[in-house]
Design brief:
Oligomer: single chain
Number of helices: 10
Shape: globular
Helix content: 25-40%
Largest sheet: 6 strands, parallel
CATH topology of the largest domain: Rossmann fold
Low-confidence stretches: none
Distance between the termini: 74 Å
Strand content: 5-15%
Strand order of the largest sheet: 7-6-5-8-9-10
Number of domains: 2
Order of helices and strands: HHEHHEHEEHEEHEHEHEEH
CATH class of the largest domain: Alpha Beta
């Protein structure tokens, strides 16, 4: 009744009370649901020498967690498990796993990549193993997640790696080398950007996304080629062997960021959650900057 009174007769005081009540609810939630988990994560890292991590996806989110996992692996054995078929609360149009973060088909494509990371001791599909650190927990913390994907996991664990360093491992592809590699997911696109100017580039340009992503991008790049990767480890090999990589906020960009190859990120004005960090990584919001930065990296990566 008091709130209703102020809502009717003193809007400013009502808004102030509403703000205070909202903060109190958040603080109560944090104190009862979040704080103990954060403290426990730090304690378990301190006490145990072998740790089990679990992640449910998305794919890019999972890769961004590797920066922290690799740092912890300097002093611990790290086992990494992937939980399948966790339902998404928010619908994602054109998501490769439908209405779940990761289905078994996608995880089976991912496992060769996990098996080729020297900092991961064991990996696999989650089968009710005892988990020390649930990397999905960043979604529960009452903070705006649009501040940097890698930092989600820093603030879960209290571990702060050097984000300038690579946190993904691969080797060169046997046959696909020195291409300009492109992937443009239908999600998180920048409507101010087009790729038409790449028609003036005579080098080989290859798309490693889904077939429909290739067909859409070929409308802009006439000589675009397509490669259907056997699995996601082959995808890392192609990106590692590329002359440079271009992509939006998609799984392939998270690979390029983890490998720290020369890379350009089509930044999304609506969901700015990914940022290049380290040498030869740039993002752009405007077409004129896209073309300028492409020219810069193109010149720098000449043989």
């Amino acid at each position: 009744m008091k709130n209703l009174f102020w809502k009717l007769f003193d809007k400013k005081k009502y808004q102030n009370l509403k703000h205070i009540n909202k903060k109190k609810k958040i603080l109560d939630f944090y104190d009862t649901k979040i704080k103990d988990v954060i403290i426990r994560n730090m304690e378990v890292i301190k006490k145990k020498k072998e740790l089990n991590f679990v992640h449910s996806g998305h794919l890019g989110d999972l890769i961004y967690s590797f920066s922290v996992v690799k740092e912890i692996a300097n002093t611990h054995k790290c086992n990494f498990y992937v939980r399948t078929n966790k339902k998404m609360s928010t619908p994602y149009p054109n998501h490769p796993s439908g209405n779940v973060f990761l289905d078994e088909r996608i995880v089976n494509l991912l496992l060769p990549l996990l098996n080729n990371q020297s900092f991961i001791n064991k990996c696999g599909i989650y089968q009710n193993e005892e988990i020390d650190i649930d990397l999905d927990f960043f979604r529960e913390v009452p903070i705006d997640i649009r501040f940097h994907s890698t930092r989600w996991y820093m603030h879960l664990t209290g571990v702060q790696p050097d984000m300038n360093l690579p946190y993904l491992e691969s080797n060169d592809h046997k046959s696909i080398k020195d291409y300009i590699v492109v992937m443009r997911s239908p999600r998180y696109r920048n409507i101010f950007i087009n790729y038409n100017f790449l028609n003036n580039i005579k080098d080989k340009i290859i798309c490693i996304g889904l077939k429909q992503e290739y067909e859409d991008l070929k409308k802009s790049i006439n000589h675009l080629e397509f490669h259907d990767c056997t699995d996601f480890f082959e995808l890392t090999q192609i990106i590692k062997s590329s002359r440079l990589f271009i992509g939006n906020e998609c799984f392939a960009y998270s690979i390029a960021e983890g490998l720290k190859v020369p890379r350009l990120l089509e930044a999304c004005p609506d969901f700015p959650v990914v940022f290049p960090t380290g040498n030869k990584g740039y993002d752009f919001y405007h077409q004129v900057h896209f073309e300028k930065l492409f020219k810069k990296l193109y010149e720098e990566t000449k043989e």
